[in-house]
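Exercise (ungraded).
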Amino acid sequence: MAQTVVKKNLSKIAREIHEAYSDWYDYDIEVVKKNARKASLRDIRIELEALRNFFGKVFYGPRYLSVITDSITLEGVQLGRFQIEINPSDGDLAIEALDPNPYIRDSECTHPYVEGNEICLGEGEEAFLCAIDEGRYFDAFVIVNSILHSYAKGKGHYNLDDWEGVTCGICGKRELPEEMGECDDCHIDVCEDCTIICDDCGDCFCLSCVSECQDCEDLTCNNCLETCKECGKAICTGCASMCEECGEIFCEDHVEYYATLQLSLCQNCHKTLTLKLEKSDGKKKQKEAKRKQKQQKVRSKRRDRQRR
Amino acid sequence: MQVLFVNNEGGGFADYVTVDSRCTVQNFFDQEMDGSPADYHIRVNREIAMPTQRLSEGDKVTIIPKKIQGAR
């Protein structure tokens, strides 16, 4: 269980850390090679005080010393706070993201320089190792803190440009920019799952800009959707028919092909046309009857003349 | 006089540097480093130092940049 380093327990913790550090220093060949100056118990006390002043809180667990950074934002991307842990008995370093906002495609990468619990110290590596060897824990923690506050494009595991990806305006899913589409109507970013290609015009739309055809149930963009003049049904162009007489659009239920007329007609136009035809047929018959009557009259007159 | 300089910008190895006997932290920084002291954490004998602080023979000056490039 980690305890917070406070004035009251500082001496005791400094002693424990110094013991762990001394064991490691005395038996580590690498340290001897570098001729690092061994930190005294007083030095460790000063280090702990300096860490408390810089980070606010310092924690000491059974085998580690740790601090928490402030919330880090780089290039507008909020990466959150990080816990930096150093084991004084072997100099091991571990990083933990406390408010992880990992790279969109790698949940282990919580910072351009952090993968899992490991940080790539880059230019700070040698300085960090020297600081650990000499028990300069303030330097060691501050070096790691400085690395966490830095970023250079192309130097880390991933770039911050597309760290969070682009958010789909419909489902809220985050994707890489190159895997996102744009709605041709409302121009919001949409993921593949929320993109519909209109069968009529072939353009891409988000789910908000398409409607279901009430006949075939296919999704059609709102621009290509027609309304039946008769019943008001929303229909795709595939299910829409035009009356060849009035030119209006109707659903399949309200336009019929009449073989006798050789026309596709709406119900109204069919009625009107039929009535017209019936009327013109009636007039023809009347004319014919009149013509026949006249002919008969002429014939009877001729017969009368011949008799006389 | 001589002071021990630990430059964490350059690998963190310690080296003795000769300075004027009335040298302050600011003077030392101007002599050894480029840029502004505001971009660095400066410590003398493991304690945070003020720019006006006078250095003494055998002091250990540690300088850490506030930005250090990591790697992948």
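Further reading is listed at the end of the chapter. For now, observe: The interface with chain A takes residues 6, 8-14, 41, 43, 45-48, 62, 64-72 of chain B (CB under 8 Å). Residues 13 and 72 of chain B are 24 Å apart (CA to CA).
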